[in-house]
Design brief:
Layout (H helix, E strand, L loop, with lengths): L1 E3 L2 E4 L3 H12 L4 E4 L11 E4 L2 E4 L5 E2 L10 H4 L2 E2 L3 E6 L2 E6 L8 H6 L5 H16 L2 H6 L5 H7 L4 H16 L8 H13 L2 E3 L5 H8 L7 E2 L4 E5 L2 E4 L2 E4 L2 E4 L3 H7 L8 E11 L9 E3 L6 E6 H4 L9 E7 L5 H12 L7 E13 L12 E3 L2 E3 L9 H19 L1 H9 L1
Parallel strand pairs: 1-14, 2-3, 2-15, 3-11, 8-17, 15-22
Antiparallel strand pairs: 4-5, 6-10, 7-10, 8-9, 12-13, 13-14, 16-19, 16-20, 17-18, 18-19, 21-22
The structure holds flavin-adenine dinucleotide.
């Protein structure tokens, strides 16, 4: 069977969907081919015993510039508080953003996560990342995240008890070898936005974008086997197109397009448990302790009550190295000060290619146009995040429009 569209997009993750939606809005005849069973790619959710279970713990950060492309109201987000719980010698301490919780200033100031000087350094680092123009942030000398934090005056205690586990949950590495440029952009989004979970799970983010495509424009269960200028081969036949956008995960993109270099993948293992009720009164991420295996453990249903069918608490606890549930059960119980036997194990998932590494030198805005009508987008072209995926899709759409609608592009530039 052979089919034709003006533009074929391979992959219905946030990058491919962001590109396709923009192209469709510009009047382009676009068709999306997706190997999997759902739209949204790595944002994937299933229901287990009535619980909403995301494939690995992840959150939507409204501080991302591209969050503006989403209808956040329709996602019915439930929110985490800005900050985290740090457990030291068995006692839980809250470290929270004083702008959100002025009443907690004293508790945060006295929490054993470093000296007052460390906390002042954290505040100054946050003001700089949150409010300097992005151009100034990116013009700063690049180093590793740990070097940047130490240079900002953050000492070892604050680094090991707060920053390392907090950032490990996002960067999926705990050496803090990630580029300081990505740390700056990431921290900026934390300062400027809030983090939340959609009522129907993270997959709803991708599905919202997919719903903006006209019916029949997305083919699920359709893997591209090979891509060449003007053509995409699938098991069901060949698609011809003026432009082809490869919007897959980085490994597949490197396989389909020799011009795309492979990237080092980060992985994460997440254990899901149920408790009869939440041990906490506020929705905060509990950080793993130094020397432990957990990076964090979170009562996700405290932030988004719709993740639970009946008011029981749903916990997501993550480790960087693959772990078996019985290896970390006691640590999870200690993080929440409950008995190990109280935890009812729901499922465990390991995501091997959760996101590409962002080591220095970070190459932001890697080329999305490869020539001969071939384009590429995905989190490996920008930053390893929802923001990076959506921004790369937007860039790819603009590049495609320059090729397939040169007049439209010129009109936009002159209007
Ligand atoms: C557990 C976990 C936690 C995370 N936490 C966060 C977080 O808190 N905040 C954040 O910003 N980011 C987080 N991320 C990263 C974020 O999810 C990704 O950066 C982003 O979703 C990548 O989108 P993408 O469109 O580039 O790629 P993908 O989502 O991988 O989409 C690629 C699509 O291409 C499809 N595909 C692959 N091969 C083919 C083929 N041959 N033919 C057709 N289709 C194909 C795939 O099925 C997939 O649907 C996390 C990721 C994981 C897994």
């Amino acid at each position: 069977m052979s089919s034709r569209a003006e533009v074929v997009v391979v992959g219905a993750g946030l990058a491919g969907l962001s590109a396709a939606v923009r192209l469709a809005a510009a009047g382009v005849d676009v068709h999306v081919l997706e190997a999997g069973a759902h739209a949204g790619g790595r944002l994937s959710t299933e229901r287990i015993d009535g619980f909403v279970v995301d494939r690995g713990f992840q959150v939507l950060n409204t501080g991302y510039p591209r969050a503006a492309d989403l209808d956040l109201g329709a996602l019915q987000l439930g929110w985490f508080e800005r900050g985290a719980v740090v457990r030291v010698d068995g006692t839980a301490h809250r470290v929270v953003d004083p702008r959100q919780r002025p009443a907690d200033v004293l508790g945060t100031a006295t929490a054993p996560v470093g000296s007052l000087r460390d906390k002042a350094a954290l505040a100054a680092f946050s003001v700089r990342a949150g409010y300097l123009p992005v151009g100034r942030l990116l013009a700063a000398p690049e180093r590793t995240a740990e070097q940047a934090l130490r240079a900002a005056g953050v000492g070892s205690t604050a680094l090991d008890r707060f920053f390392r586990p907090f950032l490990a949950g996002v960067l999926l590495e705990d050496e803090l070898g990630t580029s300081s440029r990505y740390l700056d952009l990431l921290w900026r989004s934390f300062v400027r936005g809030s983090i939340g979970l959609p009522a129907r799970g993270m997959q709803a983010v991708g599905e919202q974008l997919a719903d903006r495509l006209a019916p029949g424009r997305l083919s699920l269960h359709t893997a591209a086997r090979s891509v060449s200028p003007g053509s995409v081969v699938t098991d069901d036949g060949t698609w011809s197109a003026t432009a082809v956008v490869v919007a897959t995960d980085p490994d597949t993109a490197a396989r389909l397009l020799p011009a795309v270099e492979a990237s080092a993948p980060r992985q994460v293992t997440t254990h899901l448990h149920v408790l009869p009720e939440s041990p906490w009164r506020r929705p905060l991420i509990v950080l793993g302790a130094p020397g432990g295996r957990l990076v964090n453990s979170v009562v996700v249903s405290d932030a988004q009550p719709r993740y639970s069918p009946d008011g029981r608490a749903l916990l997501a606890s993550s480790t960087l190295a693959p772990t078996r549930e019985e290896e970390v059960r006691a640590e999870i119980a200690a993080a929440h000060d409950v008995a190990p036997d109280d935890l009812d194990h729901l499922t465990t998932v390991t995501v091997p290619g959760a996101q590409p590494a962002a080591l220095p030198p970070l190459r932001l805005r890697r080329p999305v146009e490869l020539g001969d009508g071939l384009f590429v987008c995905g989190d490996h072209r920008d930053t390893p995040s929802i923001q990076g995926a959506m921004a790369s899709g937007a860039r790819a759409a603009r590049a495609v429009l320059r090729t397939v609608r040169p007049a439209h592009h010129d009109d936009r530039r002159t209007s």
